[in-house]
């Protein structure tokens, strides 16, 4: 894979480190030095690229810029509790489970679960997204509030299908596996399509990075593997979406826009 990165001259050292890291993840990163990266620059360069500037590492396209903004999650993390967070209840994070989040994305769900006690292995297969997660994890280690939270999160760059298969073959067991695979833009039900029209900037950029055909599969293969490995599998779906892999859950937690489907071992 080839990818571009815009960076200001003072971030040369960070660019070289990022280029080396991405080469290890099979990405050839081409750097372009630019004096000033501002809103006008982003509008004039609408193509998908990485940005290295005073805000750290971000993904940009169509005049927008985003990163896994774990700092911005702090107010929510401070308020979060088992009562208020359906995800936390579904995954029983108060029992401090070993939890695999097999579809990391921006890592926001895992950050919440790590705050509430889960020990998390966070897996992402897309190398660009993975590099954004590594940057967020590193930045969070410098933050007094986030440092103990991210100490509960271990990042893995892998295809979860391979990772889960390896764990099964090695005879491992895990308490909880959480799946939040992408959901297609054009799909089985209209309500989900309407929601997609309102997706936030972060999700819009995520969809540009992970096209529907190709790298974006819908995670159906992960559920059967997860059920072999974990006592408890929780799947996040848009509220009215079909079941993942057509497997009927044993329990559902329903929210306004999304729901969590639970699959349990007897
Ligand atoms: C909807 S996003 C997850 C959002 C996440 N829950 C959050 O809080 O930010 C789905 C992510 O799963 C990743 N993914 C999908 N299938 C995967 C697989 N087989 N292995 C690893 N990552 C996968 C995609 O690359 C994408 O980043």
What does this structure look like?
This protein is an alpha/beta fold and 266 residues long. It has two domains: 2-66; 71-264, Rossmann fold. It has helices at residues 12-24, 39-44, 74-79, 86-90, 108-115, 127-140, 146-150, 160-169, 190-197, 201-209, 220-229; strands at 2-7, 28-33, 49-53, 56-61, 64-66, 98-101, 119-124, 153-157, 174-179, 230-238, 251-254, 258-264. Strands 8-7-6-9-10-12-11 form a seven-stranded mixed beta sheet, with helices on both faces. A five-stranded mixed beta sheet has the order 2-1-3-4-5. β6, α5 (108-115) and β7 (119-124) form a beta-alpha-beta unit. α8 (160-169) packs parallel to α11. The longest helix is centred in the middle third of the chain and has 14 residues, at 127-140. Mean pLDDT is 91; it is low at 186-199. It binds S-adenosylmethionine. Residues 103, 105-109, 123-126, 129, 159-161, 180-182, 210, 219, 222 line the site of S-adenosylmethionine (SAM).
Give structural attributes.
single chain; alpha/beta; 266 residues; 12 strands; binds S-adenosylmethionine; seven-stranded mixed β-sheet; 2 domains; five-stranded mixed β-sheet
Shape call: globular
Q: N-to-C terminal Cα separation, in Å?
A: 43 Å
Number of helices: 11
What's the CATH superfamily of the largest domain, by name? Vaccinia Virus protein VP39
Characterize this entry briefly.
The chain has 266 residues and is α/β, with parallel strands linked by helices. It has helices at 12-24, 39-44, 74-79, 86-90, 108-115, 127-140, 146-150, 160-169, 190-197, 201-209, 220-229; strands at residues 2-7, 28-33, 49-53, 56-61, 64-66, 98-101, 119-124, 153-157, 174-179, 230-238, 251-254, 258-264. The protein contains 11 helices and 12 strands.
């Amino acid at each position: 894979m080839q990818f571009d990165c815009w960076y200001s001259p003072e971030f040369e050292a960070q660019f070289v480190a990022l280029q080396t890291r991405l080469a290890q993840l099979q990405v050839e990163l081409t750097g372009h030095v630019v004096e000033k990266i501002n809103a006008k620059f982003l509008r004039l360069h609408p193509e998908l690229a990485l940005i290295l500037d005073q805000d750290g590492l971000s993904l940009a396209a169509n005049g927008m810029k985003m990163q896994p903004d774990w700092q911005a999650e702090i107010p929510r993390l401070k308020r979060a509790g088992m009562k208020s967070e359906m995800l936390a209840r579904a995954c029983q994070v108060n029992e401090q489970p070993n939890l695999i989040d097999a579809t990391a994305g921006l890592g926001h769900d895992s950050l919440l679960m790590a705050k509430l006690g889960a020990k998390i292995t966070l897996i992402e297969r897309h190398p660009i997204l993975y590099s954004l997660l590594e940057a967020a994890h590193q930045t969070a280690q410098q933050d007094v509030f986030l440092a103990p939270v991210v100490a509960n999160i271990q990042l893995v760059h892998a295809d979860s299908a391979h990772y889960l298969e390896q764990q099964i073959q090695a005879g491992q067991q895990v308490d909880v596996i959480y799946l939040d695979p992408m959901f297609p833009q054009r799909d089985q039900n209209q309500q989900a399509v309407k929601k997609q029209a309102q997706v936030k900037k972060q999700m819009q950029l995520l969809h540009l990075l992970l096209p529907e055909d190709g790298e974006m599969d819908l995670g159906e293969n992960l559920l059967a593997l997860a059920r072999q490995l974990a006592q408890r599998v929780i799947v996040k779906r848009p509220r009215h979406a079909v079941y993942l892999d057509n497997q009927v859950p044993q329990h559902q937690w329903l929210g306004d826009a999304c729901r969590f489907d639970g699959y349990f071992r007897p």
